[in-house]
């Protein structure tokens, strides 16, 4: 394989990877760069609590979680004003039609690694 073939392959691989990130729940809820679909992990005091998908936008989902019951319909009953400062999130942007598949893979990987995921309502 020639030099340009190698460089081309590296560029193609890098561009196919979905952008990922992490922050506090509050920062994620205010991040305008997250107005896109994706999958996410929710941590409480460093422990993985939930794996989920946000087909209508990561920022909207994080905002709903941050606001709690006063927020939208996607609130988590486990997060409220007393503990939301201890909640952090990791996300991975993806196409809307890839959310379910990626969420399932992340969930299965977490369960296989021994995670309990007490805030997940699936399976």
Q: What report would you give on this structure?
A:
There is one protein chain. The chain has a 4-stranded antiparallel beta sheet. It has 4 helices and 4 strands, in the order αβαββαβα. It has one domain (20-112): GIY-YIG endonuclease (3-Layer(aba) Sandwich). 35% of the residues lie in helices and 22% in strands. It is an alpha+beta fold and 123 residues long. 27% of the residues are buried.
Give a topology summary.
Elements lengths: L2 H14 L3 E5 H5 L8 E7 L2 E8 L3 H10 L19 E7 L5 H14 L11
Antiparallel strand pairs: 1-4, 2-3, 2-4
Q: What keywords describe this structure?
A:
123 residues; alpha+beta; GIY-YIG endonuclease; 4-stranded antiparallel beta sheet; 4 helices; globular
Could you tell me the mean pLDDT? 87
Helical content (DSSP H or I, runs of 4+): 25-40%
Q: SSE order in H/E notation?
A: HEHEEHEH
Low-confidence spans: pLDDT under 50, at least 5 residues?
7-17
From the 3D structure, determine the CATH topology.
Answer: GIY-YIG endonuclease
SSE-based structural type: alpha+beta
Assembly state (oligomeric) = single chain
Q: Which strand order does the major sheet show?
A: 1-4-2-3
Question: How far apart are the first and last residues' alpha carbons, in Å?
Answer: 46 Å
Q: What composes the largest sheet?
A: 4 strands, antiparallel
E-strand count: 4
